[in-house]
From TrEMBL:
Keywords, alphabetical: Membrane, Transmembrane, Transmembrane helix
Chief subcellular location: membrane
DNA repair in keyword set: no
Compartments (UniProt record): Cell membrane
Cellular component, GO annotation: plasma membrane
Organism: Acidilobus saccharovorans (strain DSM 16705 / JCM 18335 / VKM B-2471 / 345-15)
Transmembrane regions listed in the UniProt entry: 12-32, 38-58, 88-106, 145-171, 192-216, 228-244, 264-281
GO molecular function: transferase activity, transferring alkyl or aryl (other than methyl) groups
One Pfam family it belongs to: UbiA
Classification via PANTHER family: CHLOROPHYLL SYNTHASE, CHLOROPHYLL SYNTHASE, CHLOROPLASTIC
Name of this protein: Probable (S)-2,3-Di-O-farnesylgeranylglyceryl synthase
Protein's membrane topology: Multi-pass membrane protein
Length: 282
């Protein structure tokens, strides 16, 4: 595998693309079905992509010892990318993302900077705190929606509800991820709910956060701020997946099941974003 491919794996481009799409969805929802100029869309996408990449790279730099247990094939523990090379990539992606956001305006720069600081603090300080770390990861997941909202005209009530839904579901996924990684986390003193209270109780907590997100999902159409059909159909499908996968983890809180559950729950995010976007029509 080439060095470029190893760098790409380190940056987790799928995550960056997903965050870029969330920026665009945020702008579309805030604009009530209208998008800002193409140049703004491209710049907003690049900010999300580069800052997400920087967080992914820093995570692997900090977690190299844990990854030797949980994910020995990752670029750094496998020796395909050195720590020095990873640090250079981290600083480059950080500088590009923050510079572009500064050009776009003060609200955008503020959201980007707060999200960036949050991600750095998580990777270097609070990751081992468990639930607090889960909350911080979830904030980095919703910040692109807020970034896009400022691009599109400002935060409205639809953005507020959708931000809360993403936040709660991401906390649920992070807790489930802790169930999957409990062996390596326990070895290195990471105090996830699965480590502190056991995988069974952590699985119940994960499901509780998903159910909280699901409970909010009917409110936008009921309040008249989202198209009930265009929004309702895809979001209902996402809710059903979340319920099914959460129940599966509660019934069998093992590493293999947790790994599959957290992956499946990530795969339905595009469907949720589609529902948010379509809900802004009409």
């Amino acid at each position: 595998m080439s060095k470029a491919a190893a760098y790409a794996e380190l940056m987790r481009p799928v995550n960056g693309v997903m965050m870029g799409i969330i920026v665009i969805v945020g702008a579309f929802v805030a604009g009530h079905g209208r998008l800002p100029p193409v140049a703004s869309i491209v710049m907003g996408f690049l900010v999300a992509y580069t800052l997400t990449s920087s967080a992914m790279v820093l995570n692997d730099i900090v977690d190299v010892k844990i990854d030797m247990v949980n994910s020995p094939g990752r670029p750094i523990p496998s020796g395909r990318v050195s720590v020095a090379e990873a640090k250079a990539l981290f600083w480059l992606t950080s500088a590009v993302g923050l510079a572009i956001s500064a050009v776009m305006g003060l609200p955008e720069l503020t959201v980007a900077a707060v999200s960036y600081v949050d991600a750095v603090l998580y990777d270097t300080v609070t990751k081992r705190t468990g639930l607090l770390g889960n909350f911080m990861v979830a904030f980095t997941g919703v910040s692109p929606l807020l970034y896009g909202a400022f691009m599109g005209g400002g935060v409205n009530m639809a953005i507020v509800f959708e931000t809360l839904m993403i936040f709660l579901s991401m906390v649920g996924r992070e807790i489930a991820k802790g169930v999957a990684d409990v062996e390596g986390d326990r070895l290195h003193g990471v105090r996830t709910l699965a480590v502190v209270h056991g995988p069974a109780k952590a699985s119940l907590a994960s499901m509780a956060f998903y159910l909280a997100a699901i409970a909010l999902s009917p409110l936008p159409p009921l309040l008249g701020i989202a198209n009930p059909i265009y929004y309702g159909v895809p979001i209902a499908a996402v809710d059903l997946v979340f319920i099914y996968e959460s129940l599966k983890l509660v019934r069998s809180p093992t590493k293999d099941v947790a790994t599959r559950v957290k992956d499946v729950e990530l795969y339905v995010v595009p469907l949720a974003l589609l529902g948010f976007a379509l809900g802004a029509l009409g």
